[in-house]
């Protein structure tokens, strides 16, 4: 195992990291109210009186949110707890309308699971998942609209979140990044979280501690809150680890605290403590009864679970003969895998793989488009590959056709017809052209015959040029060989 | 005359058009006008809406239509949110709160044609047994001790409800019972009150005190009136996760079932050393009445009874401390601003809550706080399990239990003990049923030596309110309680 | 278990109830009395007794995932002690 080490003044240090990922559940309505979850609504419009904590308002649990948590648990190969419960986490904040957040403290819906991550050079590691629980999101405080006041928008208040807690198994920034990416991939495959980090659908709190290599046990950790990109997670861990090592090496001790990551300054800093006495006073929410799950429902959800990334990779490798590297790229997103399979199913699989990973991805990059709004459909790409397979066009011409497809949106065959790119397979036409080339280059023919074999390529090139690239390359070779040996 | 009507007889008279809803409502509004300046049972009166509703009720009645409560004037405890009508929970923090929604219980009553005359006084956030903790002033019990004009407490927390019914200002009132808040004031004011099984009436739109205990119920002159009201108030509500999906029976029909062959348990732990003689005697009288009516009397033991009160206070106050966190001056309610958010919270809550509410929030916060949770809250919830088991075991032998409702009759305002624990002891007989979630009711059974009413309590099995109505009606008939309080709408001043 | 003034002040801060020093003294006395009284629960043998959660009459009920509420900003803001346009407002919170 390649170990990540930080060299300090006193020696080598390793880092210990655990993560708490908050993933917004994909659902129409909120965890305990019928208000919409849609992103970007006008302020305070997606708010029910339950969300706003009006007197006498009561929470009623959303079935789909529970199902999504179960699906996620199943996808993480985790224990689904048939008995779980909702607790109140009590604290005061302007965007927390009831003065408590409904969460699952003592009895989470999902227990231990695991996530397999892949590092550079194909190395794999298992990161343990401690638990997953359902809880409510808070509203939003807006601080930059007024010099003396903060504004409160409760649209987010009550939206369902899954908090996924990892074991302190992560040992490098790279592993942290890989874990977060893998988790995001699994959730997106399952359709339980859209993984949109810019909109805040996934956020991570990272617990970091350091210890000299070889030391057992954990030292004091700090929690860095609210990191909303893989890059920030990796940077924050590195920077925080350096900070802690400096403190220990100066003979001081690290204080357990919550910190914020400032990506502009490249530092972590302590959060202004919200309260000198943090005490959440968790207790079972008396407005909600214990959640007891039927095995039959869990089975039903399990049976309908979509294929997970790892399974899909294995299958692609088996069904389409793709390499481990290729399967990794092709399954990064469900939509890519679906697109690939759509293409590969009706085409030469090897050709499909090469073209997807090569020219097609290059075209997406060039145009800045994603697979979802690809300028070329899977069907269109399949048609193009079909034209190569049946020798209608050759590979070189196909590249030109793909570019045209991206630009005009026309189909491959339409472009071939419009531009007259159909490959020439008429042997008499090829023979006539080849003969013309040989006649015009009698000196080179003589050189070739005296042993300068390399000139064969020159004749091929001249022929293709004369035929505007449309000649069937195999036939050109064949004809050349025949005429040159005559 | 108008003030001789019970809810049931008024209902019949309205249908026979012997009286119009407008006449009935106007008479009661006039009585409120006349008496409530003194009683202070209403926090908010809604005469205009009531008159409008009465006209509409008369139109329906004229066509032979209208629900079970069509045209019946009621009072609503000011803990139930009423759409467009100020709802205060008797707290300054909600001085001007106008809910844009209606509680399920009051919506059900409205659906059946009941007419609200206004919002009734209570202990602030239903925290109290005297109604003296109301931010809108105490309520005077319409009953007087013989030869004394001392103001007596109506009990609490539904003190306004009990006083208004007893004084004839309304034909019935909604109450809520968390640890005795329907039964104890009913007993103090000489009326009937029913705390149904937890989950029977929806809690949606009722301002929460302690969510696992709060239960709405009817308060009226007698059990028939309560039965009619409960049938309307009760029922499954998808908006309350603790509401139980069970059909609502015809409670009124259960009244005349009698108790022949039924087994009535007498919990020996309720016969405490300091139980006043006359209450013990009344209890014995109740036993005799049920026996005469054919019930079998069985001694039972509820061994954890003495732990009911401390268990109740820990459980209820813990929940209350959390339930009342939402009154923070941000989205609704009275705000006292400050230089920071925390300063705003502290100033708002310091000014908005009364002394008893603050004390309870502080205690509830303490018992949940880190280092104390296991010792107090968790332990109390375990004892609560034992208290519930006491009842379930008793119900293997008996169909119901008979006990006093309260350890005393109504006492004077200035006799309220200064030690909070002494005040809490008022609920000693009512709290166990609340903790177990089982139904219970109180019926007036007699007067004490000073002429103040005393109630008897029946406690039943889960969702077996019908048996309680049947047995309670036996007690009512035997007691023939026909006394009237000094302050009554039917007595000209 | 004693409840000193410092602890009462801390509880009051947790509960966001502003108390003067005199009030802290008063509440401390009351609360201590009540806490002493509830300590009698220590007599009860609770070995192997599960805590009561709900009344055992029902378990959680799940609702369908349908948008049935929201789009009622006027209601939501109708009782706001202070607002600015579509927002509730509070004294500025410094992060």
UniProtKB/TrEMBL annotation, chain A:
Q: Coiled-coil segments, which residues?
A: none
Work out whether the entry's keyword set contains Chloroplast: no
* Keywords per UniProt: ATP-binding, Ligase, Nucleotide-binding, Protein biosynthesis
Q: What is its EC number?
A: 6.3.5.-
Q: Which InterPro entries match?
A: Asn/Gln-tRNA_amidoTrfase_suB/E (IPR017959), Asn/Gln-tRNA_Trfase_suB/E_cat (IPR006075), Asn/Gln_amidotransferase (IPR018027), Asn/Gln_tRNA_amidoTrase-B-like (IPR003789), GatB (IPR004413), GatB_C_1 (IPR042114), GatB_Yqey_C_2 (IPR023168), Gln-tRNA_amidoTrfase_suB_CS (IPR017958)
Q: Known catalysed reaction(s)?
A: L-glutamyl-tRNA(Gln) + L-glutamine + ATP + H2O = L-glutaminyl-tRNA(Gln) + L-glutamate + ADP + phosphate + H(+); L-aspartyl-tRNA(Asn) + L-glutamine + ATP + H2O = L-asparaginyl-tRNA(Asn) + L-glutamate + ADP + phosphate + 2 H(+)
The answer to whether the entry has keyword ATP-binding is yes
- Span of the signal peptide: none
EC top class, as a word: ligase
Q: What highest taxon heads this organism's lineage?
A: Bacteria
Domain Asn/Gln amidotransferase span(s) in chain numbering: 338-484
**What is the similarity comment for this entry?**
Belongs to the GatB/GatE family. GatB subfamily.
Write down the PANTHER family for this protein, in alphabetical order.
Answer: GLUTAMYL-TRNA GLN AMIDOTRANSFERASE SUBUNIT B MITOCHONDRIAL AND PROKARYOTIC PET112-RELATED (PTHR11659), GLUTAMYL-TRNA(GLN) AMIDOTRANSFERASE SUBUNIT B, MITOCHONDRIAL (PTHR11659:SF0)
Q: How does it assemble?
A: Heterotrimer of A, B and C subunits.
What's the stated role of this polypeptide? Allows the formation of correctly charged Asn-tRNA(Asn) or Gln-tRNA(Gln) through the transamidation of misacylated Asp-tRNA(Asn) or Glu-tRNA(Gln) in organisms which lack either or both of asparaginyl-tRNA or glutaminyl-tRNA synthetases. The reaction takes place in the presence of glutamine and ATP through an activated phospho-Asp-tRNA(Asn) or phospho-Glu-tRNA(Gln).
HAMAP family (alphabetical): GatB (MF_00121)
Q: What is this protein called?
A: Aspartyl/glutamyl-tRNA(Asn/Gln) amidotransferase subunit B
From TrEMBL, chain B:
InterPro entries from the UniProt entry: Amidase, Amidase_CS, Amidase_dom, AS_sf, GatA
The organism's superkingdom is given as Bacteria
Keyword Protein biosynthesis, does the record have it?
yes
- Catalytic reaction annotation: L-glutamyl-tRNA(Gln) + L-glutamine + ATP + H2O = L-glutaminyl-tRNA(Gln) + L-glutamate + ADP + phosphate + H(+)
State the active site: 77 (charge relay system), 157 (charge relay system), 181 (acyl-ester intermediate)
Q: Name one Pfam family in it.
A: Amidase
Q: Could you list this entry's UniProt keywords, alphabetically sorted.
A: ATP-binding, Ligase, Nucleotide-binding, Protein biosynthesis
Q: Domain (Amidase): give its ranges.
A: 23-468
- Keyword presence, Cytoplasm: no
Q: Supply the EC number(s).
A: 6.3.5.7
How would you classify this enzyme at the top EC level? ligase
Tell me, what does this protein do in biology? Allows the formation of correctly charged Gln-tRNA(Gln) through the transamidation of misacylated Glu-tRNA(Gln) in organisms which lack glutaminyl-tRNA synthetase. The reaction takes place in the presence of glutamine and ATP through an activated gamma-phospho-Glu-tRNA(Gln).
Summarize the subunit comment.
Answer: Heterotrimer of A, B and C subunits.
Q: What family does the entry list? A: Belongs to the amidase family. GatA subfamily.
- What is the protein named? Glutamyl-tRNA(Gln) amidotransferase subunit A
| Organism, as annotated | Saccharibacter floricola DSM 15669
Q: What is the lineage of its organism?
A: Bacteria, Pseudomonadati, Pseudomonadota, Alphaproteobacteria, Acetobacterales
Q: What would be the name of the gene that encodes this protein?
A: gatA
TrEMBL record, chain C:
Name the reaction it catalyses: L-aspartyl-tRNA(Asn) + L-glutamine + ATP + H2O = L-asparaginyl-tRNA(Asn) + L-glutamate + ADP + phosphate + 2 H(+); L-glutamyl-tRNA(Gln) + L-glutamine + ATP + H2O = L-glutaminyl-tRNA(Gln) + L-glutamate + ADP + phosphate + H(+)
EC numbers listed for it are: 6.3.5.-
EC top class, as a word: ligase
> Does the record carry Amino-acid biosynthesis as a key word?
no
Going by the entry's taxonomy, the superkingdom of the source organism is recorded as: Bacteria
Question: Which keywords describe this protein according to UniProt?
Answer: ATP-binding, Ligase, Nucleotide-binding, Protein biosynthesis
Entry keyword Protein biosynthesis: yes
Gene3D superfamilies the record matches: Glu-tRNAGln amidotransferase C subunit, N-terminal domain
What the entry lists under InterPro entries is as follows: Asp/Glu-ADT_sf_sub_c, GatC
Q: Which SUPFAM superfamilies match?
A: Glu-tRNAGln amidotransferase C subunit (SSF141000)
Function summary: Allows the formation of correctly charged Asn-tRNA(Asn) or Gln-tRNA(Gln) through the transamidation of misacylated Asp-tRNA(Asn) or Glu-tRNA(Gln) in organisms which lack either or both of asparaginyl-tRNA or glutaminyl-tRNA synthetases. The reaction takes place in the presence of glutamine and ATP through an activated phospho-Asp-tRNA(Asn) or phospho-Glu-tRNA(Gln).
Task: Indicate the family of this protein.
Answer: Belongs to the GatC family.
Q: Tell me, how does this one assemble?
A: Heterotrimer of A, B and C subunits.
Protein name, UniProt field: Aspartyl/glutamyl-tRNA(Asn/Gln) amidotransferase subunit C
- What is this protein's gene name? gatC
